[in-house]
Description:
Layout: H1 14-28, E1 34-40, H2 46-59, E2 63-68, H3 79-85, H4 97-106, H5 120-132, E3 137-142, H6 149-161, E4 167-174, E5 188-189, H7 195-205, H8 211-221, H9 225-230, H10 235-240, H11 264-278, H12 281-292, H13 300-304, H14 311-321, E6 324-326, E7 332-334, H15 337-346, H16 349-362, H17 368-377, H18 383-398, H19 402-415, H20 419-435, H21 439-449, H22 459-474, H23 478-491, H24 502-517, H25 520-528, H26 535-545, H27 547-550, H28 554-568, H29 571-583, H30 588-594, H31 597-617, H32 624-637, H33 640-656, H34 660-676, H35 680-696, H36 700-710, H37 724-736, H38 740-752, H39 760-773, H40 776-787, H41 796-812, H42 816-833, H43 836-848, H44 865-875, H45 880-887, H46 891-905, H47 913-916
Parallel strand pairs: 1-4, 1-5, 2-3, 3-4
Antiparallel strand pairs: 6-7
Amino acid sequence: MGSGQGDRTLVGRRREQALLERSLEGARSGAYGSATVLRGEAGIGKTALLEWTVTRATRDGFTVLRVVGSESQSGIAFGALHHVLLPLRENSRALPPHQRLALERALGLRDGLPPKGFMVGAAALALLAEQARRGPVLIVVDDLQWVDPSSAAVFVFLHQRIVGLPVVMVCASRSDGCALEGWPTHPVDVEALSGEEARTLLRRRHPGLAAGAVRRVLAEAAGNPLALAELPGRPVDEQRGGVVPLPDGLPDQLPDRLPDRQPLGSRLEEVFARRVRSLPGSAARVLLLAALDDAAAVGGDAVRSGEQGGAEGVLDAIEASGLARWDAAGRLVFRHPLVRSAVLAAATDAERRSAHRSLAERLREDDPRRLLHEAAAAEGPDERLAARLQEAGTRIALRGGDTEGAMLLDRAAALGTGPGDRARRLTWAAVMSARGGRLAYAAELLREIRRGPVPEDIAPLFAYAVVYVDQSHHVDFASSFELLPGALEALTAPGTPDFGGLVEQMAFKLLLASAYTGDPRGWDALERHREHLSPAVRLCHRAWADPPRTAHGAETELRSLVARVAARRETAGAWLLLWAASAVDAADEELRRLFDDEHTYATQGSVAKARCHQAFLRGRWDAAEECLREADTAEELGYHCNALLFRHYYAHFLAGRGDERGLRAVRARIGPVAASARMRFVTDHLDRLDALAALAHGRHEEAYLLLRRIMPPGRLPHGLAWFHLPFFDFVEASLRCGRRAEALAHVAAGRAARMDSVSAHHAFLLAAAAAVTADDAGSDAAYAAACAVPGAGEWVFDMARLRLLHGAGLRRRGHRAEAVATLHAALRAFQGLRADPWVARCRAELRAADRPAHGTTVPADELTAQELRVARLVSTGLTNKEVGAALQLSPRTIGAHLYRIFPKLGVTSRAALAGALPDS
């Protein structure tokens, strides 16, 4: 691998070197791992930085694993991953059997398909961890833009998880950004050299260059190290060819960059192409073979074995050209990736087809590269070859290489002879590319299919592909209701092929469309086909269609199904249960069981959405910015619906903190798109969030009017699956506006609907609403009952609001000490959330109680004897039920005691009790 600068000396790269050195030092010391992506234009010096890093790491005893992305190999699923992990193959014996099997099957080292759940990412991480126990590891990926999509997805997975291992990953990619889809951190941009740095490098590489030539090269190269090294190489020929066309007599002070006629990379490629064309035909042929398949053993031995005559002359010509060299293993290595591009550009179509045929003949029948070369060598329709491509594409997709499978199906469609077969293959390609995260490519394939008739037997699959792209890419749900009900009808008819569980996947898409828009057509279609749907789909239907009337017991049923799906590692079922869990705000533990490392790889976007919302509900508000990062990533991937939803979840944090300016900005960005898509899930939520922000600032009438648009008093509306979230808001706003009767009617409606039997969060919000509407005589008991609801402390923001309201009530009733303690508990929670308007309200109440806002917690020795006994037992880890059994009290009474104990001790969790109690 060449340095990309002609020599191995780096000029003007101190910033990047310091960053990479810190990464290596972190792994050397065992403190942490890290991942860095270097981004820049061709020739800017990314490869030189990688070489510098490899040299440093090798010196320090790192295990170095490396791969260079190859455009010719980008259709081989897991090809780059195979190259990186192959040196660690012996470590696979230490993996759990299911991980080892998944990894070896995905990499083609063992026959068969990986188990469902797709554990390749987790297995690769475990393999690296095993090696890291022996010493630090460096992974180097050059030309990331040409790495096959399956391997790139695993590298993203590793990028996010190596922080706890002494592992450093350094990747390099072109600056067009396409290779960085889904990468979780921002790349390091490798920028052009400054004028003085460029002069230094040019003098070092070409010390005898005349002053006029120096000025011309500096202007043309624009700080690109490769251009500085290469443009002066053949000045006469290249000036004649227009590569360095600047006239003599330029002034000493040149602008930073002159207007380009074409990109610098293209001009450098032309420099290399001229050199290729000047080579003997046999030498150019060898370079072409290596450019088309650098893994096909194209080296000195291959040349000597008789590709063409004069082997030694071929070797000498290639070495003398400076375009490539032979490494220690006797393999041909291009000086720079642009050389590979130049070799391909310099060859004619006929020469490329001939080289592909030659490469295919050298490979085994079962080598997947052989089929790719045969396809590239084909000159016209070939149904036999098309059928083989289709079979291979299907097999690759089953191994997890959806995008690579789609590429093979696309090529099969081009080589096939029947129009019906062409449409079928393109439809499968569209589905595979959509599942593989290449939505723009899928949309392009669908446009191609629509140019002709769609065969009836493939119509359901075509409908699914259209809906997939419309929902995720175009943020359009109209086709969901136009196509999916009929497609479900066709798929559930006797004798119809199931297309690999397509009924389940269609039902999920229809459920999403219905939940997002509230359109009853989707719910009706799902109800009609209920007997054909799995328990997971039926649970989703119950949890989302009309929860006040259909979702009773949903959280309990969810736990049972989660245990079953997690045990079997059923990724498809996990997706459905994730959606059901979102409806009932299921505990984090359920998400972890559903989506451990083995599942997250296949479900990253959906899990990220669920976790963003969980972070808001459970008071982890430092995660707010993560929503925006996820939105940017989704936008780059073409998942525009996900991007909209991530920004919608970010708006929750803004509303909670009373940031109305930020909230307006988010509404302006996503509101029109959501309204155009009739996406009530977002537009109604935005109204609720505006109301929540108004409550934060004490504008209760405004909040009431906004919330009344969503849910009338005393009625739990149909079509509002998340009715429980604004439920407590509506009761508070009604009370603050003097509409007590409406608040009581709303609580009564919640009780009548048995809202508390849906989930723990539903139960807490109903109990909280009941507490704030209770009369003075029953107020304290009602607040205690709300805090005794299992898991009540998890809803940090809601609990803080409840404590604020309770503290204000206590103050008004003259219970000054209890009021101050309760208000301080609320104040600490709001401060932790950085919810400034709510903090101000707490302080106003404390001032009204005529008590300073600090140093007000009650010492532990002021607990009553019974409270102390309860606190000591709870601090040992016992549940409320176990403590109640020990003290012969009910669990509800234990919860009431804890409600009083926490503010007195100044703690907010059971775990903090032990540290707050006296030592005796």
